[in-house]
Amino acid sequence: MTGRWSSVVPYIAKSLEALDAPAGPFQRLTELACTVFDAPAAVVTLVSGDNAVLWCSDRELVRSLPRERTLGDRLLRQGKGAVLVVEDGLADPAARNHFLVAAPYNLRFYAGVTICGPDGQPLGAFGVMDRQPRPRPSDAQIATLRTLGAMAEDIIASLEVGRVSEERHGTLELIENMAGVGHWRLELASGKVHWSDEVFRIHGLDRKTFDPQVDSAIDRYHPDDRPGLLAAIAHSAETGEGYKMRLRLIRADGEERAVLTQARAERDDAGVVKVLYGVFQDITDQQAQIGPRSA
């Protein structure tokens, strides 16, 4: 194996290379975590020797630093199955000097779990973060975080064997269904759109009878929302910047639903944006709950 990670254990090296990739396999998982936990950032930490590499979905940061400076190292020292919650980074002596707590990130809350390699040994952490202090997650939220951490472990294992685990894919679909979150992918050259099962469910459509293209997908939104979405897609295609939008979706049965979509851009080796991809969530019920409380 060649490259900057060639001197470390092979499966760790492949995972570190994946963190380095502009649109690597951890990206979809961290974006899903952000949506499920309504958090601005999710972070993967991998440790090799005395160093740690962090990939943070906020600003797509890949940074190497001494392992003792990371929250992931605290989890590794606790061993397999550990959970770490920092409710307020400024009030936690071990977290207040972390670089993500400082400007420009200003992150305060962290909830993470240990992730292990194929040999069962702890090698890093997976967590979600927020710029505001938060209370400790519920037992159900901790269980979801453990599932996301297990999926990170499956990504590491799949990189070692060179295939995508069917179990990981199935678990991802279960989490998407449970959270009302799906994922999508738009090929800009062809206009072909790929939806997960949950996106089809939110639309009230069947993949056997509906083959989404960019035009037919946009036609599913309220007419007043379509120009803004088209402009966001064009801007992302031109600049490589992502977008986050709340939209009104008109389902196949005519029902109007409130949805949230977040997008990122994927570039080819020449730096040209070829693909947009992201997550998609039905937030109708959440908005209905917020309405009475704010009235």
- List the total number of helices: 9
* Fourth-tier CATH superfamily name of the largest domain: GAF domain
CATH T-level topology of the largest domain = Beta-Lactamase
The CATH class label of the largest domain is Alpha Beta
Taking the alpha carbons of the first and last residues, their distance comes to 61 Å
The largest sheet, given as strand count, sense and whether it forms a barrel, is: 6 strands, antiparallel
Poorly predicted runs are: 1-11, 161-167
Percent strand equals: 25-35%
- Quick one: overall form? globular
Rounded to an integer in angstroms, the radius of gyration calculated over CA atoms is: 20 Å
Query: How many domains is the backbone divided into?
Result: 2
Strand order of the largest sheet: 3-2-1-6-5-4
Known CATH architecture of the largest domain: 2-Layer Sandwich
Order of helices and strands: HHEEEHEEEHHEEHHHEEEH
Average of the residue pLDDT scores? 80
Helicity, in percent? 25-40%
Q: How many strand elements?
A: 11
Provide the structure class.
alpha+beta
Organism: Brevundimonas nasdae
Domain PAC: 243-295
Protein name: PAC domain-containing protein
